[in-house]
Design a protein that fits this description.
Layout (H helix, E strand, L loop, with lengths): L1 H10 L4 E5 L8 H10 L10 H4 L2 E5 L12 E4 L5 H14 L5 E4 L6 H4 L5 H5 L1 E6 L8 E6 L5 H13 L4 E5 L7 H19 L3 H7 L12 H7 L1 H14 L14 H8 L12 E3 L5 E4 L6 E3 L6 H9 L2 H4 L4 H19 L8 H11 L6 H8 L1 H10 L6 H5 L6 E4 L2 E6 L3 E4 L9 H4 L7 E2 L4 E2 L4
Parallel strand pairs: 1-2, 3-4, 4-5, 6-7
Antiparallel strand pairs: 5-6, 8-9, 9-10, 11-12, 12-13, 14-15
Helix pairs in contact: 1-2, 8-15, 8-16, 15-17
Length: about 450
């Protein structure tokens, strides 16, 4: 991750030092390896050779003093509190008094990171949680500590939006922040529902994909892409930090078959086989969840999925068959879960929706999806299935989470209050802007808006 952050800073035309632990024979071996990953032709982290020339390689033994002139030091070391604290003490000795220090952690509360540090250091410290690959994933979760100077937060937000091209979502210092808490929970809901209802990976991935406004990788394809072993670690890390009464725990139980897959090296794309694989003769194959053998994986066309893509996600919920049950189980739990997080993670649904769109590539966030489904329809369906209705969702009964008022797009807050959605200067999001405008012209496939 550190190399990815360095690469994006260099892409912005700014000099950067990439430091890693010293190697035995070659002191800069690890930082050189990080730079090599940025050159990957399939997913290049650098935009040009000019950007690469702005990256200086070093190690934390021989080149630590180079940080004395840096205005921002972004730490992305292993998720161990003792190692991070030792590094911060060294940074406090070397960095100048105005240098901003941030961590890329997503599992350690900021209060623990800086609990033994001087007040001046705490004022300049924040969490900048990037998503991988850094160049292509737009989300940056920005977390303020109790003593972080608001001016530091504004500087980081402005720089990351305007220079690095990120969509900044400001988060409270709560477990998992926003995107991973909702995103991993939703993935786990889809995974366990598929096993419980007896769906094949092909069936599950067709439904938990474009029909729900989610990337076409689906759930089993996503597990293969990320790595089944790595996803298991991510789930366990959230289990370790979330409150014991959090709904996440009900979807976190290990699946015995997947434990066997990890033991057998069937961990996904990186090993050439997981839930899917390509045979020696080039045939795409899928794992049978019953006998654990591989067979052909033909393209699966489900009329319900196609109908939902064309007419909206509510088509899934109105289906009384197995596929409708699968969709309802995922959406009822994940959308309700997002609503229960208000006000724990903040009082603004826009932050959660932004996090899911920018960090997980959802077309719409949870509250936008509820609006599409219909708030009252969703509440009535929850009640019919004897599912508790979250308080924030109940407040929206008869209304919505977003509205256009006096030409401005507004979002609902707790207490039936509304606020106008405002973006940073120079930032325009067309999907929001067009909701407040009438097209100059339109047809079945396109519309023309005048943004002045």
């Amino acid at each position: 991750m550190g190399a990815g952050i360095a690469g994006q800073v260099a892409n912005a035309g700014i000099e950067v030092w990439l430091l890693d632990l010293p190697g035995e024979n070659n002191p800069n071996a690890l930082s050189e390896r990080g730079l090599e990953r940025l050159r990957d032709p399939d997913q290049p982290g650098l935009m040009s050779s000019a950007a690469e020339a702005l990256i200086h390689l070093g190690n934390t033994r021989d080149d630590f003093d180079q940080l004395a002139d840096c205005d921002w030091v972004a730490e992305a070391v292993v998720e161990r509190l003792d190692i991070k604290k030792e590094l911060y003490r060294r940074l406090d000795d070397v960095c100048h008094d105005a240098a901003i220090i941030t961590s890329n952690t997503s599992t350690i509360p900021i209060r623990l990171l800086v609990e033994d540090m001087p007040e001046d250091f705490c004022k300049r410290f924040a969490i900048t949680h990037f998503f991988n690959p850094v160049r292509f994933m737009r989300l940056l979760e920005l977390v303020r500590g109790e003593h972080t100077d608001p001016a530091v937060m504004d500087t980081l937000a402005r720089f990351c939006e305007q220079q690095l091209g990120k969509g900044v979502v400001r988060c409270l210092d709560t477990p998992g922040f926003l995107a991973n808490r909702v995103g991993v929970y939703t993935i786990q809901c889809a995974l366990h529902a598929a096993f419980d209802l007896g769906l094949t990976p092909l069936q599950a991935d067709v439904l938990f994909g474009r029909p729900m406004g989610i990337p076409k990788t689906g759930v089993f394809g996503l597990y293969d892409l990320i790595g089944i072993d790595l996803m298991s670690d991510v789930v366990q890390s959230l289990v370790n930090i979330l409150p014991i009464d959090d709904a996440f725990h009900a979807e976190s139980a290990p699946i015995k078959m997947m434990n066997r897959m990890i033991a057998n090296g069937q961990t996904g794309n990186k090993q050439g086989q997981g839930f899917f694989r390509v045979s020696e003769d080039g045939e795409r194959q899928v794992l049978d969840l019953n006998d654990e053998g591989y067979g052909p994986a033909p393209r699966l066309n489900l009329p319900l999925a196609e109908k939902a893509e064309q007419q909206g996600i509510r088509q899934l919920l109105e289906d009384g068959g197995l596929y409708g049950q699968y969709a309802w189980r995922i959406l009822s739990r994940s959308l309700s879960y997002a609503a229960t997080l208000i006000p724990e993670v903040g009082d603004d649904p826009v932050a959660i929706d932004d996090a899911m769109k920018l960090g997980y590539n959802w077309i719409k966030g949870p509250f936008e999806l509820i609006d599409e489904i219909g708030v009252d329809y969703f509440i009535q369906k929850l009640e019919a299935h004897q599912v508790p209705v979250p308080a924030f969702l109940a407040e929206a009964a008869g209304s919505s989470f977003y509205r256009v008022n006096a030409g401005a797009l507004q979002s609902r807050l707790i207490g039936n209050r509304w606020q106008t959605i405002k973006r940073a200067p120079g930032i325009i999001r067309f999907n929001e802007k067009r909701q407040t405008m009438k097209p100059r012209n339109s047809c079945a496939v396109a519309s023309w808006y005048d943004l002045n």
